[in-house]
Amino acid sequence: MPLSKHQLKFSFKHIFALLGLVGLIVVLLLSRHEFTSFWHLLGGLRWYVLAGVVVIQLASYWINGLYYRSILRVFSCDLSTKRLFEGALATNFVNYVLPSVGLAGAGYLSQVLAPEVPRGESFLTQIMRYAFSALAVLVMLPVGFLFIVLSGESGHVIVKITLASIVGIIIFAGCILLLVQSEATLRRFCAWLVKTLKKIRPQFDSEQKFNHFIDEFYVGYRAMVRQKRKLSVPFFWSIIYILIEILTFYMAFLAFGKVEAIGIVIMAYLFANIASIFGGVFFSTGIFELGMAGTLVALGTPFVLAVSVTTVYRVLNLLIGLPPGYYFYRKYL
Predict the structure, then answer these.
(1) What gap in Å lies between CA 53 and CA 187, rounded to an integer?
(2) In the predicted model, what is the mean pLDDT of residues 279-289?
(3) In a 10 Å sphere around its CB, with 0-12 CB exposed, 13-18 middle and 19+ buried, how is residue 239 labelled?
(4) Contact 180, 186 (CB under 8 A)
(5) How far apart are CA 324 and CA 333, in angstroms?
(6) How many Cα atoms sit within 13 Å of 11 on the Cβ side?
(7) pLDDT in tens, 96-145
(8) 0.85 cut: is pTM over it?
(9) Quick one: pLDDT at residue 197?
(10) What is the separation, in whole angstroms, between the first and last Cα of the chain?
């Protein structure tokens, strides 16, 4: 659902986001004696490399547009990649403003794709975006771990974290899949949700629209089940998106004149995403950054370099995505 002005100005979730940021600040304060080295690294930053990061990051949003177009074709809908590119930026903005494991962005995407695409199918399109991203992370984890082993940097901790992450993603994905496949269970849950909303807000009168939304959702779901082979295309774009993001993260090291082991870069990016998946209910800032910097340090990257690279990468990531995301968010309200 579109955000109201009140929601943009304040949300209780912003408090949790602030706590995540405070956590990162605490880590920095505990190592304040390293700030001299941090500024020394910034002084030697290769800005022309960062210019390349900007271009590649924008390309990653275009890849998201290609993902949306490929999965919408499963529903016999064909929208322009340009509009879907704008929708990807707007959805990213909404997810950042309202951390809710991506549900806010999924709801907003239905606004971007309306009226050509039913809202239930739009919501399913974004949910599948998250599912394919999680599957792509699951595929890339063994790849990153293999590079770590080949480089001789592996240890018991990284083995345990990798296995725990794989198990966690599989359980999380399995629970969602079981819920979606059990239509009766999902409808009972939605009926309970409607009754709860009525108790909280007696004037709530959208039960019919809510049920219609669920009907549209399952129309799209059945269409996907009938055309499973076509789902390989959106999954392919999800893999490409992950690879592009890893490339931009690696370029952040190059911007500091450092050549880091590719396995370390892959694992740091993947663990940061896993942390944000499970922490995304409450936090939009801090969890991803702590996960990324923490993994780098655990795998032997000097603390100052880990924080410097993480900071520059994330600042660029947000500066590239949020301003145009806000513009397109306003455009499609």
Answers:
(1) 44
(2) 59
(3) middle
(4) yes
(5) 14
(6) 20
(7) 777 665 677 777 888 888 888 888 888 888 888 888 888 888 888 888 88
(8) no
(9) 66
(10) 10
Domain spans in the chain, listed from the N-terminal domain onward: 5-331
- Cα 237 to its chain centre, rounded Å, is 14
Q: Which of 139, 142, 137 is nearest to 154 (CA)?
A: 142
Under 8 Å between Cβ of 273 and 102: no
Residue 44: phi and psi, rounded to 5, are -100, 15
Residue 237 has pLDDT above 90, yes or no: yes
Which sign does the torsion angle of CA 214, 220, 221, 223 carry?
positive
Confidence band for 239, pLDDT divided at 50, 70 and 90: very high
- Three-class SS string for the chain? CCCCHHHHHCCHHHHHHHHHHHHHHHHHHHCHHHHHHHHHHHHCCCHHHHHHHHHHHHHHHHHHHHHHHHHHHHHCCCCCHHHHHHHHHHHHHHHHHCCCCCHHHHHHHHHHHCCCCCHHHHHHHHHHHHHHHHHHHHHHHHHHHHHHHHCCCCCHHHHHHHHHHHHHHHHHHHHHHHHHHCHHHHHHHHHHHHHHHHHHCCCCCCHHHHHHHHHHHHHHHHHHHHCHHHHHHHHHHHHHHHHHHHHHHHHHHHHCCCCCCHHHHHHHHHHHHHHHHHHCCCCCCCHHHHHHHHHHHHCCCCHHHHHHHHHHHHHHHHHHHHHHHHHHHHHCC
Which of 235, 34, 11 shows the shortest CA–CA distance to 132?
235
Separation CA 58–CA 52 (nearest Å):
10
Contact 125, 71 (CB under 8 A): yes
Mean pLDDT of 74-102: 83
Let me know how long the chain is. 333
